[in-house]
Amino acid sequence: MEKQRFGDGRPPENAAMPLAGTKVLEFSGLGPTPFGAMLLADLGASVLRIERAGAVNPLGGDPRFDFIYRGRPSMAVDLKSPEGLERVRDLAGAADVLIEGYRPGTMERLGLGPDTLCADNERLIYARMSGWGQDGPLSGKAGHDINYLALSGALFPLGPSDAPPVPPLNYVGNFGGGGTFLAMGVLAAMQERQRSGTGQVLDVAMIDGISVLMTQLSGWMQMGQWSAGRGGNLLDGSAYFYRCYATRDGRHIAVGALEKPFHDAFVSALGLDPEDWNDHLEPSHWAIRGDRIAAIVAGEILEHWLTVFDGVDACVSPVLSVDEAARDTGGTKRGSWVRDTRSFQPFPAPRFSRSPVRQPSPTLDNAELERVLHAWRAEAAA
Amino acid sequence: MSSNGPLTGLKVVEFQGIGPGPHVAMMLADMGAEVVRIERAGHQPMNPVVERARHRAAVDLKSAEGKAFVEQALAHADVLIEGFRPGVMERLGLGPDAVLKVNPRLVYARMTGWGQEGPLAQAAGHDLNYIAITGALDAIGKRGELPVPPQNLVGDFGGGSMYCAMGILAALFERQSSGKGQVVDAAIVDGVTSLMSFFYGQPHSALRTVERGAGLLGGAAHFYRCYTCKDGKEVSVGAIEPQFYAELLQRADAPEHLREAQMDPGKWDSYADDLAELFATKTQAEWCELLEGTDACFAPVIPLDEAKDHPHMKARGAYVEQDGRWHTAPAPRFDRTPNTVRESAQDGEEVVARWRQEG
């Protein structure tokens, strides 16, 4: 195991993780639902995943490398059989949290809706993950990350102004605006339950989460400082001091020199006189200055520019591939990735000083399933 | 100004900052926490939407009175949020060692790009730099072109504020059993790395490749990308599963040959040309009429200033008008203790005085 990297006062090796003792029943799904469960498991919750009997992982591949399923065992249950349902109801009776991401109405049809399960267990936090939400005209309709981004205004500005927008993979919808809101909502409800003794139902919708991620841009837009269009904005690649440039060897640097001191350090290091580069926030300067800098950066290889900008507060970074990032060639030396016997995987975030998170195990086997079931039963009996 | 949200009763002290820190404080405040925001004298809100629901206090941290006020606030607080460069709080005499000695129950959250440690910890940086070194930026854009910055949604917020808020709440849960607070080191580089967990294990499948513009989710597949309509407006399609793909083709009346070999990346470019031609024959409104609200995995591409007016967003109340501004409604939604959007007030001193009285 990689040791916890932290500043002052290293936590003891055997300290409990922050969510130790929390029992989470997860109904297996795609994208944000398992990701939210991963975040809770990463922080120490005991998560048990229910798979529908006979279900095949639609993503294919070796499940041991599916890191969003890490840190928890799974149990196949036939949800259409009375025995299967009974088993799941028992587990929900012992759980603190239930996570599901089916289409609205599905859990109810299975006899596992919140009215039933929260009546069995009034402390249960019943978290429902979806794209469009539990209500509204599109609720229950099929959709994916790109659609939620499109409708919430997040996709429109991404990409060059002369072509349709480019999806930022599924970072912003499924994960940033989905699974993280699921985990945050569950934890807030647990905080409330400490006072009230009662759980509740959470409607976690990606379109809502994406909108909250857009709050800063929405505020700027209403102050006249940001346009909802494509191109011409400070953070979309239009500004010459906030964009990527290609180097001579086909690599890229990313520049984020928004403030004047950083901007001036950036142009100085390129051999230009900051006196000639005033009013950097004035968009009419951006295109022509961007072309000029692109030509300069294209004249040397990445390594050269990294040397030039080493130790300069100019907000310049190499654009690394995931493989390079995993090998930490970017130099954060934080151990954001950790290596196990087979592969690199992301280390849980954030970091805690006293109750450290640990490198998660891969998807767990039957022995682990038995251990988890036994622990849940023992606690329920106590 | 009262709230019924799940964090009602939680006392938070926020040090004025930019980007993810204020966003964390906003989300906690939206969920009902009482947030006192320590601001420099004369501070004008940089973003009144993000800076909503705060109890503002103008404080000179270098003066004896200012420092005494902040120390009193922290002695009674549950949570501290700061986003300065590592070492700044220590130099102000407000580092974790000093503050946790006075209030051992405090959750001390530190929000930065590079983290509290490591060779880059003291370097300046912004969202684009943090996502550049994680590998996330490299994957966004078109093949053979420059990476496209996803505004600051992936770094500052998705991988930043969300992980900080989650860490604070997890530490509060842990405090219920230990009685102790702790330091949460929320680094954007760590959060973005965690956001990429889906990709890293099996990066060589077409679904999960992180090669720019080459993957299914990166815009290479004809069934997962945007198209331009007759009126120049755009639409998105995301029909990955065969049954949804079939519904898209059938409802859009697409050429017959597209039904074959959906998942063959060798066909994607030519199929995308076919669909580009098809989508150019009707306006966005006409496509919405045909495809919206079906299982074709379709949505119009809407600019942010129009999002609040879409019927679905309206029905969900995704935006709330207050104080002459449109506010994003807090997420997620809680059925028993709903969140509310509140206004800020310059009453931080009164609130801290009340905290002291309450003990």
Plain-language structure description:
The complex is a heterodimer of chains A (382) and B (359). The model of chain A is unreliable at 1-10 (pLDDT under 50). Chain A has 382 residues and is of the alpha/beta class. Chain A has helices spanning 32-42, 82-94, 106-109, 114-120, 145-152, 171-196, 206-213, 215-222, 260-269, 286-297, 302-309, 322-326, 366-381, and strands spanning 23-27, 46-52, 74-77, 97-100, 125-130, 201-205, 242-246, 252-256, 316-318, 337-339, 344-346, 351-352. Chain A contains 13 helices and twelve strands. Helices cover 36% and strands 14% of the residues of chain A. In chain A, 55% of the residues are buried. In chain A, the strands form three sheets. Chain A has a six-stranded parallel β-sheet with strand order 3-2-1-4-5-6, with helices on both faces. Chain B has 359 residues and is α/β, with parallel strands linked by helices. Chain B has two domains: 11-195 and 320-358, Rossmann fold; 224-228 and 234-300, formyl-coa transferase, domain 3 (2-Layer Sandwich), CATH 3.30.1540. Chain B is 39% helix and 15% strand. Chain B is built from 15 helices and twelve strands. In chain B, the strands form three sheets. Chain B has a six-stranded parallel β-sheet, with helices on both faces. Chain B has a three-stranded antiparallel β-sheet with strand order 7-8-9. A two-stranded antiparallel ribbon of chain B has the order 10-11. In chain B, a hairpin with a 5-residue loop joins strand 7 and strand 8. The mean pLDDT of chain B is 94. The chains are: A alpha/beta (382), B alpha/beta (359). Chains A and B meet through helix 1, helix 5, helix 6, strand 6 and helix 7 of A and helix 1, helix 5, helix 6, strand 6 and helix 7 of B.
